[in-house]
Structure formats: structure tokens, C-alpha cells
Specification:
The protein folds into 2 domains: 120 residues, 2-Layer Sandwich (D-amino Acid Aminotransferase, Chain A, domain 1); 162 residues, D-amino Acid Aminotransferase, subunit A, domain 2 (D-amino Acid Aminotransferase, Chain A, domain 2, Alpha-Beta Barrel), CATH 3.20.10.10. The chain has 304 residues and is an alpha+beta fold. It starts with 5 loop residues before the first strand and ends with a strand. It is built from 7 helices and 17 strands.
Length: 304
């Protein structure tokens, strides 16, 4: 990772190399952290952060679900995100706000420790999200079951959820796939390790409901709104793994992934094995939105 600019930590910008936490930080031992992933795009009109208020809202909602007493309000965090991006001098970047129970008392109970907040950003490279942008991603139905809200709040973007996701991702990579698709404890499709999932069948676009134990993805919501504004509709309904095998198209959405095509699931070829026309059209529509070329969604961009 190229170290650029500074990292905002508890109200101060500190040099990238000095943004450190104590080895006995509670979150390091017990995964008591919540975070966000936000994109800043280099548009023709300048750098713009995508759906910043929605990300900040979810950040605070996640904190509330984990009984975190934030020492900053939404405006302060919003201003700090903008300040951090400006200080980086990057025209396009990935932004990571994180709140976590810090150094203090050790033991399972986190609430006696202060909640620390940090914001970092770094140069964005397509990296692991490249699969699915051009040739279509190869996915595996994971042997690991997606944890659900009976175990912990899945609407929170929280660190403990991603240990489950990391198991699935590594399993898929080790078996030669690009990504995992996880089932919930009812055997229904939940989501990828870091993306929501959509299926096109007989001209209907279907995605698992939030009750399937999926993250309330902001890119998911963005794509649904784009589809509706373009005259289409999205059905939220439970999906079986067989529904994926026989789909005409499958695509995934996420902050890193944006909109990516899936062309193989297990040993099944999806459609004709190439990114479908609906998926490709959505990729273009989403890019138009993030680049400020679609005036209907300019309110989603915070120019800085």
C-alpha cells in the first residue's frame, strides 16, 4: 500500500506511518469494530464522494447496534472524511472510516473502553474486484454458512461479520474460483463474501431480501434505484442455489465490486458464459452515475 497523506485519528491528522494502536486494543482481540467502505471518484467536474450521507448514517447505525457511544456526531465525521480525502491529494480513492473499542480494560465486555474513531484513504486499484468487470467472475457456493441476525446484527457493517466472509473467500480462491456465494441457515442464497447478488431470469431481476441475512448494501440500493428510474423493477425474494444455475444472468454489487458479472457458479455456466447485456448496461449506468453524467442522481455525489 502506498502511504499518502495522513490518517484521521480521534480528531487529529497523523502521519500515515504513525497511525498505530496498542497491541491490547479490545477490537484486535474481540473483533469489536464497525466500519464503512466509501468510494471517491475522479469525475469530469472534480473529485466526488459517492453517497456520503448514506454511508455515514450506516456507520452510526452499526455503532448503535454494537452499543458504541460515539464521541463525534455525523457532521463531525462527514467533515473529517472530507478533510482526510483532501489531505491525501488523491483524486480517486477508497475511504475507510472505522470505530472500535480501544485500549483500556481487557476482557470480553467492551463497553468500559473508549470508542476510538479513525479515517484512512488510499489509492484505489481494481485488484480483487477485477474479476467480473470484463470476462465474468467464477464463483463457488461456499461450504461456510452465512451467519444471520439470530447470531449477530447483519445490518451492521461490523468486523466480526467479515471473519465469516473471509473463510468463504479464501476457500473459493484456494479452489480456483474468484469469489464465494454464501447460503443462509435456511439454505437460501444470501450474498457473496463482500457483495450483494442479483439474478436475471425471464426478464425479471431478483435479489435476496434483507431478511435473508444480507448487508443492506448501499451499492445494492443504488442499482435498485437506477433500475427503477430506467423503467424496470427488482423483486426481492428468496433464491435457491438452483435458481442461480439456471439464471440468464447473475451479477453482484458492492462498493469495491461496483457491478460485476458472474458467468460460472460451481460447474454451471450462466447464460452463454459471457457477461449479459443487462449486466453490461447496468455497469455503464452505474459508471455514468458515479461520474456525474446522469443528472437524475447528481445528489448522490459530494464534490470536494
Amino acid at each position: 500500500m502506498k502511504e499518502v497523506g495522513k490518517i484521521w485519528m480521534n480528531g487529529k491528522l497523523v502521519p500515515f506511518k504513525n497511525a498505530k494502536v496498542h497491541i491490547l486494543t479490545h477490537a484486535l482481540h474481540y473483533s469489536t469494530a464497525i466500519f464503512e467502505g466509501i468510494r471517491c471518484y475522479n469525475t469530469p467536474r472534480g473529485s466526488a464522494i459517492f453517497r456520503l450521507p448514506e454511508h455515514v448514517d450506516r456507520f452510526f447505525n452499526s455503532a448503535k447496534m454494537y452499543s458504541m457511544k460515539m464521541q463525534y456526531n455525523k457532521k463531525q465525521i462527514t467533515d473529517a472524511i472530507i478533510k482526510t480525502v483532501k489531505n491525501s491529494t488523491l483524486k480517486e480513492c477508497y475511504i475507510r472510516p472505522i470505530a472500535y473499542y480501544g485500549y483500556g480494560e481487557m476482557g470480553l465486555t467492551p463497553t468500559q473502553n473508549k470508542v476510538d474513531v479513525a479515517i484512512a484513504c488510499w489509492s484505489w486499484k481494481m485488484g480483487e474486484s477485477k474479476a467480473g468487470k470484463f470476462a465474468g467472475a467464477r464463483c463457488k457456493i461456499s461450504s461456510w454458512i452465512r451467519i444471520d441476525s439470530a447470531a449477530q446484527p447483519m445490518k451492521a457493517k461490523a468486523a466480526p461479520n467479515y471473519s465469516n466472509a473471509a473463510l468463504a473467500r479464501v476457500e473459493a480462491l484456494n479452489e480456483g474460483y474468484d469469489e464465494a456465494i454464501m447460503l443462509n441457515n435456511q439454505g437460501k442464497i444470501a450474498e457473496g463474501s463482500a457483495e450483494n447478488i442479483f439474478v436475471l431470469k425471464n426478464d425479471q431481476i431478483i435479489t435476496p431480501p434483507l431478511t435473508a441475512g444480507v448487508l443492506e448494501g448501499i451499492t445494492r440500493d443504488s442499482v435498485i434505484q437506477i433500475i427503477k428510474e430506467n423503467g424496470g423493477q427488482v423483486i426481492e425474494a428468496d433464491l435457491d442455489r438452483e435458481d442461480l444455475y439456471v439464471a440468464d444472468e447473475v451479477f453482484m454489487t458492492g462498493t469495491a465490486a461496483e457491478v460485476k458479472s458472474v458467468t460460472t457458479i460451481d460447474q454451471a455456466t450462466i447464460g452463454n458464459g459471457k457477461p449479459g447485456k443487462v449486466t453490461k448496461a447496468l455497469q455503464k449506468s452505474f459508471t455514468d452515475v458515479t461520474m456525474g453524467r446522469d443528472e437524475r442522481f447528481l445528489h448522490w455525489l459530494k464534490y470536494i
